[in-house]
Design goal:
The structure holds two protein chains of two kinds. Chain A contains 14 helices and no strands. Chain A is mainly alpha-helical. Chain A has a single domain, classed as Orthogonal Bundle (MetI-like fold). By secondary structure, chain B is an alpha/beta fold. In chain B, a hairpin with a 2-residue loop joins strand 4 and strand 5. The longest helix of chain B has 18 residues. Chain B is globular. The chains are: A mainly alpha, B alpha/beta. Chains A and B meet through helix 10 and helix 11 of A and helix 4, strand 6, helix 6 and helix 8 of B.
Chain lengths: ~300, ~400
């Protein structure tokens, strides 16, 4: 019976129609990328040259200097000898197992991605915190960014910009930026209303309120967001390597396709080591800047 | 009376999506609950009219939900009214632009908050100087003034601590110092002492009173505690469901409550803690000096059928001369009564009845007690009958 097939088979669009949509969308986007790809790519030139400069800096500096610099950074952020020693040992091991160059490349791209995410994410988070309308508009976009499989948005990016570092950075930033935006928004919204009222009642301008009250008080939450962002961009390293981002991801990709277990394990461990270092150092730094919160159980 | 420092005229505040639409209902006299049921709008304040004079401690008293915190936030426009005007020094605050409002808040008013509202990431000194530093004053100048006010509230030595390291009372002192530091004329205190335990609260009240003696600020004080209101207030306004029920000085409230609601409030108040010797003093018609002759003194006392007469030395009380002593002076042929004057106890007119009462009860020979004002001048004697009226 006709009714039967209508119920068991979903009444789908005709194949021709579907094909038409695909073709026209693909063609439009292809035309768009052919037309504007170059000019859009040129927008990212400064970023690319910075990325290359930073990578070269890390690669061309003698390795002991790099280790000293990173350890010093870790020490000043955390003021912990144990952590600094851990940094030295991990980098020595990474170098000894022949992963120095890849690690430096990954380090450079992660650093750039994190800085970019912070630079873009905090202002967006602030805007979200200031207006409920912006918040309700941005939240679904963030949801899409976090749940859409990375490969899906890699396609248009690669079509537009080809393969290489810049599409890699864009992919990583899209994936890693939501936590810093969300937590900046949350942190500012959670600032004690009375403290903010106090600032207003003493005649603080909106800028003074933001810089003097909201951001400092939201800082622990924002730092948690930044921490998440770093972790997520490290997790993206392998996927980014599929579109030509050099670094620790490429050997991992190679080991998947060729079943090199040990190679994969070593590079994976190097990523983990980087992640732990980034995490501990940024957490320790955040904790140290919140020293004034101690002793709040008093009276 | 001169133009009051702060005047509020026909102030209405309605919370909800379209507050203006509800005003006609409020003016038609519908109750808060009816309006909420009919329109989903919450009536915050209705038809508030207030005048606050310079140098006054004006207390707004109400229970939670009475709209008192909403009211105080109208003075510096942390909340904008739905309708009405707020005049400060004759200027309608509602007409100020954002920039002018900011200047107004910086210089005219400062505020103390219930939960202190201190900046947790700033040191005590930075908190005290906050008002000045956002005005853009130089660091040294801010520091100097902040240290001065920190000292005035008795917290010197704590300047480098963080608020979380201080006790509640200390934190509120920081809040008070911060409010005083901008030299604003008007001090808004939103349940400033409510979060503190009773002992500390009393201490803070004393400190506020003694600071006020020196500074003569205009203080608008919000509280839910009638005892506190009576203790601090020069004038008290009682707020219920967003409406002002009674405005008056503490004695008015206590002795002539406007309705049952106020009456119920006042009922539990320990009057002997609120009323002072000034309330039970009776003016003395009959006064003598040390140079009065014995005959004159005796005649005067007999004439008035009194037991004794007060003997003054200038404006202060020297003592009393009893009828018997006057007779004795006459019999012994004394020229004047100076040698027969008995000392009496005097209390300042700020003395609480609570302290006065036991002294009155254990008086031997029914000896009276004199009352003196701030400057030590004699104002009259404690009247037992007035006392009985208030305490009963």
């Amino acid at each position: 019976m006709a009714g039967d097939s209508w119920l068991t088979e979903f009444p789908e669009m005709s194949r021709e129609g579907l094909l038409g949509i695909r073709k026209s969308l693909d063609a439009t986007y292809r035309d768009f990328s052919r037309e504007y790809g170059d000019s859009i790519e040129s927008i990212f030139d400064p970023l690319l040259s910075f990325l290359i400069w930073f990578e070269k800096l890390l690669l061309n500096t003698p390795w002991p200097l790099v280790i000293i610099a990173i350890t010093a950074l870790a020490y000043f952020a955390s003021r912990s000898w144990k952590l600094s020693l851990g940094v030295v040992v991990s980098f020595l091991l990474i170098g000894y197992f022949g992963m120095w160059e890849d690690t430096m490349r990954t380090l450079s791209i992660i650093t750039v991605c994190t800085l970019l995410s912070i630079a873009l994410g905090i202002p967006v988070g602030i805007m979200m915190a200031r207006s409920d309308r912006v918040q309700s508009g941005v939240t679904p976009i963030l949801d899409i960014m976090q749940t859409m499989p990375a490969f899906v948005y890699l396609i248009p990016v690669v079509m537009l910009l080809g393969i290489g570092r810049i599409p890699g950075v864009i992919a990583v930033v899209i994936y890693a930026i939501p936590p810093v935006i969300r937590l900046t928004n949350l942190g500012i919204r959670l600032v004690d209303r009375e403290v903010l009222e106090a600032a207003t009642s003493y005649g603080a301008s909106p800028t003074q309120r933001l810089l003097g009250v909201q951001l400092p008080l939201a800082m622990p939450t924002i730092m948690a967001g930044i921490n998440q962002t770093i972790m997520m961009s490290l997790a993206m390293v392998v996927i980014a390597s599929m579109i030509g981002v050099k670094g620790l991801g490429q050997p991992v990709l190679k080991s998947i396709t060729n079943q090199y277990f040990t190679l994969g394990l070593f590079n994976g461990l190097a990523i983990v080591a980087l992640a732990i270092i980034f995490d501990r150092v940024s957490q320790a730094y955040a904790k140290r800047t919140q020293k004034h919160m101690e002793g709040s159980d008093h009276g | 009376m001169a133009e009051p420092l702060v005047r509020i005229e026909n102030l209405y505040k309605v919370f909800g999506s379209n507050p203006e639409s509800v005003i006609p209902l409020v003016e038609a006299g519908q109750s808060k609950d009816d309006i909420l049921a009919a329109t989903g709008h919450t009536l915050g304040l209705q038809n508030i009219n207030l005048e606050i004079g310079k140098g006054e401690i004006f207390v707004v008293m109400g229970l939670s939900g009475s709209g008192k915190s909403t009211l105080i936030r109208h003075f510096n426009r942390l909340i904008d009214p739905t309708q009405g005007h707020i005049f400060v020094e004759g200027v309608d605050v509602m007409t100020l632009s954002a920039k002018e409002l900011q200047e107004f808040r910086r210089h005219k008013m400062s505020m103390v908050f219930q939960r202190f509202g201190l900046l947790p990431h700033c040191s005590v000194l930075e908190n005290v100087g906050y008002g000045l530093s956002i005005q853009g004053l130089g660091k040294d100048k801010v520091r100097e003034k902040a240290l001065h006010w920190l000292d005035a509230v008795g917290l010197s030595g704590y300047e480098d601590q963080y608020p979380s390291q201080l006790s509640g009372g200390q934190q509120q002192r920081v809040g008070l110092a911060r409010a005083l530091c901008t030299d604003a004329e008007i001090l808004l205190m939103d349940e400033a002492f409510s979060a503190l335990d009773p002992l500390i609260r009393r201490e803070m009240q004393d400190q506020l009173i003694s600071l006020q003696h020196k500074l003569h600020k205009t203080i608008i004080f919000i509280t839910h505690d009638l005892d506190e209101a009576l203790r601090l207030g020069d004038k008290i306004a009682i707020l219920r469901d967003g409406k002002l029920i009674q405005v008056g000085n503490p004695e008015d409230i206590l002795l002539h409550p406007a309705d049952d609601y106020v009456e119920a409030f006042v009922h539990d108040v320990n009057r002997t803690k609120v009323l002072t010797a000034a309330h039970v003093v009776s003016k003395v018609q009959l006064t003598l000096t040390g140079r009065t002759t014995a005959q004159q003194a005796l005649d005067t006392i007999r004439e008035r059928h009194a037991d004794y007469a007060c003997v003054l030395d200038g404006k202060s009380l020297k003592g009393i001369l009893t009828l018997q002593d006057a007779e004795r002076a006459l019999n012994e042929g004394a020229g004047n009564i100076a040698a027969y004057v008995r000392n009496v106890n005097c209390v300042p007119d700020s003395a609480e009845l609570e302290a006065l009462l036991p002294r009155l009860l254990i008086q031997k020979e029914n000896q009276p007690i004199g009352v003196t004002n701030e400057d030590g001048e004699f104002t009259g004697m404690v009247s037992c009958s007035k006392m009985a009226e208030f305490v009963s």
